[in-house]
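User: Predict the full complex structure for these chains.
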Amino acid sequence: MQLPDAELLYKSLAKKIQSDGGKNFSLIGIHTGGVWLAERLHQELAITQPLGMLDVSFYRDDFDKIGLHAQIKPSEIPFEVEGAHILLVDDVLHTGRTIRAAINELFDYGRPASVSLATLVDRGGRELPIAAQYTGIALELPVDKMLELKREESGKLSLNLYDKSIPE
Amino acid sequence: MKIHIKNGRLIDPKQCIDAVQDIFIAKGKIIAIGAAPDEFQPSRIIDAESLIVCPGLVDLSVRLREPGLEYKATLESEMEAAVAGGVTSFACPPDTDPPLDEPGLVEMLKHRAKNLNQAHVYPIGALTQGLRGERLTEMAELNDAGCVAYGQPDGLLPNLRVLMQAMQYASTFGFGVWLRPQEISLTNDGVAHDGEVATRLGLPTVPVCAETIAISNIILLAKETGVRVHLCRISCAEGLTMVRAAKQQGLSITCDTTINHLHLSDMDIGFFDSNCHLMPPLRGSGDRDALRNGLLDGTIDAVCSDHAPVDEDAKLLPFGQSEIGATGVELLLPLTLKWGNEMRLPLLKVLAKITSDPAEILGIDAGHLSVGSAADICIFDPGYYWKVTSSAILSQGKNTPFMGMELPGGVKYTLVDGHIVYER
Amino acid sequence: MINRNPQLDENGVLQHLLTTEGLPASILLHILDTAESFVGVTERDVKKIPLLRGKSIFNLFFEPSTRTRTTFEIAAKRLSADVINLNIAVSAQSKGETLLDTVNNLSAMNADMFVVRHAQSGAAHLIAKHVRSDIHVINAGDGSHAHPTQALLDMFTIRRYKRDFHNLRVAIVGDILHSRVARSQIHALTTLGVPEVRVIAPKTLLPRMVERLGVHVYHDMAEGLKDVDVLMMLRLQNERMKGANLPSAEEFFKYYGLTPEKLTLARRDAIVMHPGPMNRGVEIDSAVADGKQSVILPQVTFGIAVRMAVMSILAGNQV
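Assistant: Here is the predicted structure of the three-chain assembly.
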């Protein structure tokens, strides 16, 4: 199937956030794809707060099934979460479980004034009451496929579809 | 009962016989070899085609755990195990509870064993009362009760003065003294050979010099007292060198090693396998190779099973806390054959180490197949390989480092005094 | 009779941590890498993460040790596990219940993990061999055999300060003979590619053939400390200070204690480590223990992250 161009989706996503007064957000990317997007947004929106990163491995609810990933990146939030307006950035929104884990971890750092979510692709299939405020595109995808964001050495982003081996 | 064993390959190391010959048994004795006596009417014919017919095996160390330690094993279970292993005569060490230091205890043991009508039991009496290493036992009385030699249990040699006097006293009557050489003050809480394996596993050690120093003391005292000494369970190459030199000087000294030490080294402890918790400890592979050669060249006179049944709970403990010992009376033949196969030796030479040679050390009329002698016979299939499993072993102790291994030599019949006490 | 490494399942996945010996470098490094991300957690205000929520971890201490037990307890609690501490005195053991009876009883209480400390070498192996297959065992010190989490936190500390293992000279000083820490350190260092590991001790405190473990033996501090990047001091147990191992603590300190003067023999940027608790004035001078080159307190901090890493990796490796 023909996947949309990730670069175009990113541009449209950035525009939506910008037109909503994106400057005031504190940005947190979710590893790994979300961090790539957040890095770009951080620059493009000229946000002064440093960029945060979350690896939600320690907060996942499927640890009993899949154990710990081989490579876990440390979470790093170099600003005060307490009272901040936070924009979480992830590449693909699906069941909502990753975002649940991210919000849980975020609250271990403090009590933010608000949390919003930006995602490049919303592929539906939600298992939790979670919604994105900013979305590049909404797509219907077969359940047995996994959608992943890739980054080339040049920094160019692209979307790839795989057969599902690990549940999100 | 008259028995005719036919078509078997008869091997008798003592008389240097290795030939297909029939044996004829009556009234518990071998009455003819080769041609049948006139008018011999056997009530049983054993066809030993392709089997070996040899003297019943003689084992220099089998612990029956009676009296006192019946939860580990009973006389019944271990006597049954012995004949299943082809063993028809064996010595049992004095370390029972109470120890064999009184004629009454020895008589009781002999009596109980005799009633079972299985293998012949030859008790080693305690050298000192209560094995405490202080006062001598009534060796002459014990001898009358049936003791064939006098010893101390593992690792409990009396101080040198007591030892010297015990040797002098024993030599007065011409008794033999059996000692396992190990200097207590160098043993401490040691459980493993002082080598790389113990270093890796962090196990307390028994250095080689604990054995060699004791051997040296015993040899010097034997020279001093003129006593006949048997060194039990030599474990190291250096000790062997000392025994060889003593023998060359004409000293009346013999020694044995165990089936375990003949095949295993400290490497076999692996990840704390408590079945390899033995005393003396399994030593380095160089020591093992020296023992294998020492048995071949006669420095080591015999190999024994060092049979020590241990209940399962006592082995399911951390290595250092687990009980010492391995079951083995049923493995004496297989592991001796394995040694012989690996050394490419003729059976005549191999079987001597578990028949005529140990019988000579014990000073008993056994371990040979002569006309007129007691019909103690082992018939086995040398080409039969069997797997060592809990159910294959009759001994109450299932503790052996060889568990799960395939070993050669299946005993088919065991005869004691002309009775078939085991057959399968 | 040769068994596969009892710590790994048939796919080479870590099921128990019993010793650092025989584990591939990849597993050791995975533990260190995972621990890095837990250091971040331990620096936050809320130091707890929900990873092992609902899991029961039993601290089975057959030998008293408040310190090690506490670090395991903190690590488990930060992972949101339920921790049950059992100090099983040796006397209770001798009253009839065997080690495996104790373990079986606790398994029946739905344990997920045992952290075991025992005075006998091989106790953790024995438990791992006989425990229900879904229970993971961590060796928190067995006799003189192994103390793998201590060695791993030491490796973590070394990597933090020296970055790479491949160009280091490391000296381990003191009672090697009785030290489970030293054995585990030696295996971890050689597995991770440290080219030169030295042990420095009098002959009464060295096990036989220790060089077979891949170390160079020194009896003299001046020689042994020359150009060393990392000094790992060992604790000298009280009972070894007098008697046949050593004449006195004073003489030991004079010849093998780490003083500021002796430290100058090592490289100028050398770090000094100690597994604790320290005997100041016996194996180490206070001026060194509290000095610039000491990383003894960071070791304690990292210890929690490393134990969190080991627990979460094991808990995640399902049978």
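The two ends of chain C are 24 Å apart (CA to CA).
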